[in-house]
Amino acid sequence: MLITVTRSGGFTGREKLSALDTSGRADAADLEELAKRAVAPVADGFRYRITVDDEVLDLQDPCLSDAQRTLIRTVLGTGA
C-alpha cells in the first residue's frame, strides 16, 4: 500500500510531501490498518466545505477546530 501525506500551512507556509510504501515493512499490517481507519468516514458524521472568497476547505466531524465549529454554527444557524 502506498500512503502519501501532504502538510501545508504553518508559520512559513511551506509544503511537505512524503510517501511511504508499506511493502516489506515489518509494521505493514499495522500501518495499513491505521491508514484504512484514518480515511474512513465517521459513521453518521457531517462533512463540511467552507469557502471564503477563493479559498476552499473540506472538513469532517469530529475534526473541527473551535473556530471552524463556531463559524459553521453561525453560518448554518444550527449546532454543529
Structure, explained:
This protein has 80 residues and is of the alpha+beta class. It folds into two domains: 1-40, no CATH class; 43-80, no CATH class. Helix content is 29%, strand content 30%. The chain has two helices and four strands, in the order E-E-H-E-E-H. It has helices at 28-39, 66-76, and strands at residues 2-7, 16-21, 47-52, 55-60. The strands form two sheets. It has a two-stranded antiparallel ribbon. It is flat, with a radius of gyration of 16 Å. The relative contact order is 0.12.
Question: What is the compact description of this entry?
Answer:
The protein is 29% helix and 30% strand. The chain has 80 residues and is of the alpha+beta class.
Describe the protein's topology.
Elements lengths: L1 E6 L8 E6 L6 H12 L7 E6 L2 E6 L5 H11 L4
Antiparallel strand pairs: 1-2, 3-4
